[in-house]
Amino acid sequence: MEQISILDDNKRIEINKRKKEVKFVAIDVETTGLSPVYNELIEISAIKYEGAKKIDNFSTLVKPKKEVSNIITNLTGITNKMLENAPQIEEVMPKLVEFIGNHIIVAHNANFDVSFLQNNSNKSFSKNKVIDTVALSRKMLPNLPNHKLNTVARYIGIQ
C-alpha cells in the first residue's frame, strides 16, 4: 500500500491504493472516572467496518465492582440499576479482544479508550494501529470552537 501520512505538516491525506477495503474498529467507552487504574469501564461499544460498510458490532454494559456515582450517571445516562445484570469485565474483555483482533482501532480521544481496554486485558494493543479522531480534528479543523465528538460530527455533517 502506498500511503501518505495524514498528520504531516503539509496536511496531506493518506491514500489507500489497494483494491481491498481497510478493516477498522471504531470504539467508544464509558467509565466511572478518568483513571484506567482506579476507575472502571461501564460500557463498551465497537463497530467493525470494511471501508465505509458496517460489518459487525459489539456493545455491552459492564458491571463495575463499585457503584456508579450520581455524577457519572448524569454524564453517561448509565444507572446502577442498568448495570445490575450486566456481565463483569472478566467476561467481556476476551470477547472484545477477539472482536478487535489486529484491526485498526479508531476512537475519539483514543489514548483514553485504549488505556482502559489495555488495563483490563491481558492483550497488548500495541500492535494495533490506532487513529485518534481528536488529534485528526485538531490538525485538520483547527478553527472549530472545540473538538468534542458532537462538534466535529456536526461540522462534517454526521448526526
CATH class of one domain: Alpha Beta
- Name the CATH superfamily assignment of one domain: Ribonuclease H-like superfamily/Ribonuclease H
Residue-averaged pLDDT, rounded? 91
Largest sheet: 5 strands, mixed
List unreliable stretches of 5+ residues: 1-6
CATH fold category name of one domain: Nucleotidyltransferase, domain 5
Rough outline? globular
Strand content: 15-25%
* Structural class designation: alpha/beta
Please write the string of helix (H) and strand (E) elements: EEEHHHEHEHH
CATH architecture label name of one domain: 2-Layer Sandwich
Cα end-to-end separation? 32 Å
Percent of residues in helices comes to 25-40%
Please give the radius of gyration in angstroms: 17 Å
